[in-house]
Write a structure and sequence with these properties.
The structure holds 3 protein chains of 3 kinds.
Chain A (H helix, E strand, L loop, with lengths): L7 H9 L1 H4 L13 E7 L10 H7 L1 E7 L4 H10 L2 H4 L2 E5 L3 H6 L3 E2 L7 H5 L1 H7 L10 E2 L2 E2 L1 E9 L1 E3 L1 H4 L17 E4 L5 H11 L13 H16 L3 E5 L2 H9 L5 E3 L2 H9 L5 E2 L6 E11 L6 H14 L2 H11 L5 H9 L6 H20 L1 E3 L7 H13 L1
Parallel strand pairs in A: 1-2, 1-3, 9-10, 9-11, 13-14
Antiparallel strand pairs in A: 3-13, 4-13, 5-6, 7-13, 8-11, 8-12
Chain B lengths: L10 H15 L2 H9 L10 H6 L3 H34 L3 H9 L6 H15 L5 H24 L4 H9 L4 H30 L2 H6 L6 H11 L4 H28 L3
Chain C lengths: L6 H30 L1 E4 L2 E6 L2 H8 L2 H32 L3 H12 L6 H12 L4 H8 L14 H25 L3 H9 L4 H12 L1 H17 L2 H6 L7 H10 L3 H25 L2 H5 L8
Antiparallel strand pairs in C: 1-2
Classes of the chains: A alpha/beta, B mainly alpha, C mainly alpha.
């Protein structure tokens, strides 16, 4: 499907010709686009719909399709819906290499074809082979994902209600009973809880990022206990919901992602993203190249160009500004050097966010594991927690 | 209509209806308000309505949803009508009814996945067609039931009379039966269309590169939050519908007396 | 004028819906049931018969999820039916057709707005600092915000009822409106009170519509994933959510098993209905049809 540039007049014509177009597919591609890259993304990788720079440089359109981040959504898209023939790139939170590679769904990335790869020092610094971050982009010593976004998560709180908070213990503090929200995700909330329990000595957990059955059961039992005491107001699983919980002051302490804090702040809320002493939940987005034996060489080349583009300065600065995540080292300099595209406060924002995330990475914490060894057990335990 | 009891005794009922309607319409207000909010809190603006036309993703999703709704709104009632007719003519009414109602019993999630596997097995790529198929299947039982319910009151003697008067089957059906079950058919059409534009789970399994409004809303709701542009879209739909419905009703009023 | 279609062509035409459902539903569901018995190995399946999925289903928390889903669905459907029936009865019997039409349309308009957006609006309205609580506190009726308005059973029921109840009005309206006035008049003439008339004439004759409405409500509520997510409380999990989450870990056989169990339950319900009610009264005049 080709993206159509629609202005008001076109939109009107569009509305009138709706029935005529039915069944015939959509408007044919624009004359000058050499082709289209189908890009499945969870919403984070969308630079506000503006792919003009990429199109100008490569001659290819980008068709962005929104998909969910859940492993089932991703796998359904690639497996069941014939997605392998449909998408070139899929941009999701990394760490999914094992099921993707084992099922021959994605290809190795030839980093030599990406000029911006070498310039992205974050890769070596945080995600190099041998480091725990490698599990976000690599598998079996090979690179499969291009890290488009990096971030460290903790939790948010309303200082006017709680004062300064600096530990995950706040999530389980009876002082805030009924005013706490957790994310409905065993790889984030579950792992953060494990990190807390380990550091607080409340449970024996060797590696929060890959727990054994007994260890995770202990985490679940703890959470069920808290739930029965009425500690949690809600277990959220959507961005919008989390933001609402903050802006409506429905809860005071919430395990969430930093962009939610940015959105809430922009609406005038006094909310802080905590710097817990236990550390952060570190993760990265990875753009995978979908395995498709029928793809032409030109199409693959164009896909590589897009991957490279996403490692570049303009894209990085745009995403950092829109979503609040750290992207790549060139983003900061690009924003500063191009005031026509990134006004001063945006450039400043990019610099601040980058600085902030780097600090988190240096403090450390635990790397999120999206596909732990006992993931099935995690899932059924989490079900037990939710049904309790 | 029964003999009217004195008017004033009716008001408790109207109150109940008003309350029910209020519950349904109240959620529309926050959406409308959100669509008019500016970036700074407390600002009012129409800019999102303008931005809507510049957001290809949302427009594309809207277009796709509209096209699909039209197709489903035609296909499902059509098949439903044929099904209702087959129930009364083919001699195994209960069996056919059971089969037609089957789609109701499959949870959306399972149906989506199962359909996706089927298409993959058959080598059919995801497209508007696959979405239409899945949604028609979902709307089919409702369309069938509605048309069937309308038919239960239709007395076949009318058709007999028509045959006796010399009309062919099609003629008899078209001129005699169709008008009497018309309300059932229009009900089936609107039902199917509404089901289509709200259908999310089944569609997301077979959508391929296509976005529909509900699947787009669902994924942005979960990942990045609803944008004001979406609210503007909703606002437009509300306004457009109210206009269409009002004009419909006004025209209808002029067409009376029957 | 168009002549009659060939008899055999007509038969084929009439079989189209059956064929459609057979291909696009029966086959995929058959696949699902098959898959539920397979052993899994990652994304692929081993052709080995295994009851592992069913075992984990019965042993675990999923059974509880199933039970709760059924309970919630039945509650929501029952409440919706009552409300819808009352409204449908009023519209069918006590109001001019024109007014009834207008009201019916009024009930459908909100559905052009995506239900996710509507449910999100409910969270805005029912929260601790939402409109309802603020108004109640300002009026002095309560001192502290009502917690149970949102993220609770109440909220989920509200979401489900608002999603399905209006749809139920229509078939009920058709059904009640179709009851021949003469029956009612005869009943009144024979001395029956309005209540008796309702109980013995109206209610039984409107059962076709009640069935259609109840079925839709029950199945719809059972299949819901979005409402519990948006409006549910602490880890409100219904069948739809648990199927998704088991697919999330590629446990397709378990997801298939869960689906199969739900489907089986619904089919049993339908079987029960067939046995209890005489279909003939539902199909009514349709069965007097002679080709």
């Amino acid at each position: 499907m080709t993206r159509v540039n629609v202005n008001r007049r076109d939109a009107l014509r569009l509305a009138l010709s709706l029935s005529a177009a039915a069944g015939l597919g959509l408007v044919p591609p624009r004359a000058h686009a050499a082709g289209t890259i189908n890009f499945a993304d969870i919403g984070v990788g969308d630079p506000g719909g503006d792919w003009s720079k990429f199109e100008a440089a490569s001659g290819y359109d980008v068709n962005l399709v929104s998909i969910g981040n859940a492993p089932s959504a991703v796998l359904n898209v690639l497996v069941a819906s014939g997605g392998q023939g449909t998408y070139e790139i899929i941009n999701i939170v990394g760490g999914m290499q094992k099921p993707l590679v084992d099922n021959a769904l994605v290809e190795k990335i030839d980093t030599g074809r990406l000029p911006n790869w070498a310039k992205d020092t974050y890769v070596e610094e945080f995600l190099g082979n041998g480091k725990p971050g490698f599990q976000f982009i690599g598998y079996d010593n090979d690179i499969y994902g291009v890290p488009t976004v990096l971030q460290g998560d903790s939790f948010a709180y309303l200082p006017e209600k709680t004062g300064k908070l600096d530990s995950y213990a706040a999530l389980f503090d009876p002082k805030w009973k009924g005013y706490v929200a957790l994310e409905d995700n065993y790889t984030t909330a579950g792992q953060k809880t494990a990190l807390y329990l380990k550091k607080a000595g409340l449970a024996k957990i060797a590696n929060p990022d890959d727990m054994t059955k007994e260890e995770f059961k202990a985490v679940t039992d703890f959470l069920i206990d808290q739930k029965k005491k009425g500690q949690f107001r809600v277990i959220w699983n959507s961005f919008e919901q989390a933001v609402n919980l903050i802006t409506s002051k429905e809860v005071y302490v919430i395990d969430c992602w930093e962009p939610m804090v940015f959105v809430a702040k922009s609406k005038g809320m006094d909310v802080v993203y905590a710097d817990p002493k236990e550390g952060y939940l570190l993760w990265a987005m990875a753009a995978y190249l979908v395995k498709n034996p029928n793809r032409t060489a030109e199409q693959t080349e164009a896909a590589y160009k897009l991957l490279d583009f996403m490692l570049g300065g303009w894209y990085g600065a745009k995403i950092t500004n829109l979503r609040g995540y750290m992207t790549n080292p060139q983003a900061e300099t690009y924003a500063k050097d191009n005031p026509s595209e990134f006004p001063a406060e945006q450039a400043k924002r990019v610099a601040e966010i980058t600085e902030n995330v780097r600090r988190k990475f240096s403090q450390g914490g635990t790397w999120q594991n999206r596909w732990p060894t006992e993931v099935e057990f995690y899932e059924s335990e989490w079900s037990r927690f939710k049904a309790a | 209509m029964d003999e009217p009891a004195s008017r004033w005794r009716r008001w408790p009922m109207w109150l109940i209806i008003a309350v029910a309607l209020a519950f349904l319409y109240v959620p529309l207000v926050p959406s409308l308000v959100a669509s008019l909010q500016g970036v700074e809190p407390g600002q009012w603006t129409l800019r999102w309505y303008g931005e809507l036309w510049r957001t290809p993703l949302v427009l594309g999703a809207f277009r796709a949803s509209a096209m699909i709704a039209v197709l489903v709104g035609i296909l499902a009632p059509l098949l439903g009508l044929l099904a209702a007719m087959s129930i009364r003519e083919l001699g195994v009414p209960r069996f056919i009814l059971l089969v037609m109602l089957l789609p109701l019993f499959i949870p959306g999630v399972s149906m989506g996945l199962a359909s996706a596997f089927l298409f993959r097995l058959l080598g059919i790529a995801p497209s508007l067609a696959t979405i239409v198929i899945v949604q028609t299947l979902w709307a089919l039982p409702f369309a069938t039931l509605i048309i069937l319910t309308a038919m239960t009151t239709f007395d076949p003697q009318y058709l007999e009379a028509a045959y006796l008067a010399g009309a062919g089957r099609w003629r008899a059906f078209r001129d005699i039966e169709l008008p009497l079950i018309a309300s059932g058919i229009t009900g089936a059409i609107s039902f199917s269309a509404i089901l289509s534009i709200n259908e999310t789970i089944r569609t997301s399994a077979v959508q391929g590169p296509w976005n529909t409004v509900p699947t787009y809303i669902w994924s942005t709701y979960r990942q990045v939050g609803l944008s004001p542009v979406l609210y503007a879209l909703m606002g437009l739909i509300i306004i457009a519908t109210v206009v269409i419905v009002l004009s419909f009703l006004l025209l209808g009023r002029e067409a009376r007396p029957r | 004028m168009v002549t009659a279609v060939e008899p055999w062509a007509r038969r084929v035409l009439l079989c189209l819906p059956l064929i459609f459902v057979a291909i696009f539903l029966v086959v995929p569901v058959g696949l699902t049931v098959m898959i539920s018995f397979l052993q899994r190995a990652g994304l692929r399946f081993l052709p080995a018969f295994s009851l592992a999925s069913y075992a984990s289903l019965i042993g675990g928390a999923r059974l509880e999820v199933l039970r709760r889903s059924l309970l919630v669905a039945i509650e929501a459907t029952a409440l919706s039916l009552i409300i819808a029936y009352v409204i449908a009865y009023f519209l069918a019997r006590k109001v001019t057709p024109a007014a009834a039409r207008i009201v019916l349309v009024l009930f459908t308009i909100p559905f052009l707005i995506n239900y996710i957006v509507r449910d999100v609006s409910y969270t805005v309205l029912l929260g601790r600092t939402g409109v309802v609580n603020t108004a109640l506190m300002a009026a002095g009726i309560i001192d502290a915000p009502l917690d149970w308005l949102l993220y609770s059973d109440f909220a989920v029921l509200l979401g489900l009822i608002s999603a399905y109840m209006p749809f139920m009005i229509f078939p009920l309206f058709l059904s009640i409106g179709a009851i021949d006035r003469q029956y009612l008049e005869a009943s009144a003439l024979l001395g029956a009170s309005p209540l008796t008339t309702f109980r013995t004439i109206t209610l039984p004759l409107s059962l076709p519509g009640v069935f259609a409405a109840g079925l839709f409500g029950l199945v719809g509520c059972l299949g819901e994933s979005a409402v519990p997510i948006i409006l549910g409380g602490v880890g409100y999990e219904l069948i739809g959510n648990t199927i998704t989450s088991s697919m999330d870990v590629l446990n397709y056989p378990l997801a298939a098993a869960l689906s199969s169990v739900v489907i089986l339950l619904m089919l049993l319900l339908m079987l029960g209905w067939y046995l209890v009610f005489d279909m003939r009264s539902f199909l009514g005049r349709i069965l007097e049809w002679r080709a």
